[in-house]
Amino acid sequence: MSTSRLDCARPGMPGHGINASKPSAMKVESEHGDVAGLFTEIADIVDEYGGHLHPGLIIRNSGQSYCAAITPQGLAAAPEQPLIAIPRSLLIPVDGIGWQVRDGRLQAVSGLSDLSGPQRLLLERMLSLYNLAGKVEEACRTLPALALQGQEGLLELLRRGRRHWAGTPAPPAEAFIGTRTLAYSQYRSPPVGATARPVKVLMPLIDVLNHHPGGAPFAASVEGVSVAVRAKGEDLECFGSYGFRDALSLLLNYGFASTQPQFVQSIACEVDLAGWGRLGIQRQDFIPPRDLPRIDRTHDGVSISHLNLPADRSRHAPDRLALALRMLRPGATGDVVEAAAREAGAQVCALNRTYYQQLSAAVDAASGARAQ
Prior knowledge:
By secondary structure, the protein is of the alpha+beta class. It has helices at residues 33-48, 72-77, 117-132, 135-142, 144-147, 152-161, 172-178, 247-254, 316-328, 334-371, and strands at residues 27-29, 52-53, 57-62, 65-70, 84-87, 92-93, 98-102, 105-110, 181-184, 199-202, 210-216, 219-220, 224-227, 231-232, 237-240, 263-265, 269-273, 277-281, 295-298, 301-304, 308-310.
């Protein structure tokens, strides 16, 4: 493995093969000159090596925060163009790279020899931006696995809510990088015989796309990754989608909780229905709402792999419960099954409310103890 080191030192553009005569049309609004310069350099590298940035793209920086927006004129002139398109050659594989935090600075300290020249240039500038904004320090405050060490009661309560969340922290450098990686696969539906697994990559400019349930997905293809324009609000901020995650999943994996969740993923729970038996809800992480649950018979009832509770109280949850109940009594009439499904749904919702009330009280207690 290479012993080269990349950290927050900001290299100049001359001598690195970047065509300064063809600067990107992207604009940067920032009071911090170094931040504006680094974003401009990243944009120039992307343009030089086959990427695409929408001509109306604006990156706004305030303190430690970034966001992307688009000008009305740019949107009108090129409504069908992607906001950002990064070729596969500029995606930065992270497996095999060694990370460390030294003197408060995030560094890549090994595993760099397999990166191309443009990939190294991009990684240098991305690390510089992370260090200027104190992103690792921020992750230590916001990622529960890092911020709640020593508060085992609260950690155990969070584990109850998510089966696959262990609450065991990775080192801060790796934990932060994990919040920035994409699982890249060139195949949407792998062909028969394909063995390539998704590769964890850093995508240039991914940090400027905040999450919104209606944001644009990160669309992967053999060419690379692109993000369409999904602008919202008077300021035309452009959002990405981090997947079909509820507020708790976003908090545990990214360190923030969405105020606009589309659904809540039920905790693991069991309810007893007179005349039907026991209905068990398992728990998993990151299950899209449109995915039907797996339903299995048990010795005393039925088990459902997962259940999403839509924020708009649509029919999804009762319909999925009805599917499970029909397995128990195939001959039951529709009205009988629907009534039982409503009762089961009410009990499941009540158990989830109790869990989140307990979680809220535990968070308040921990915050109060920390303030003393």
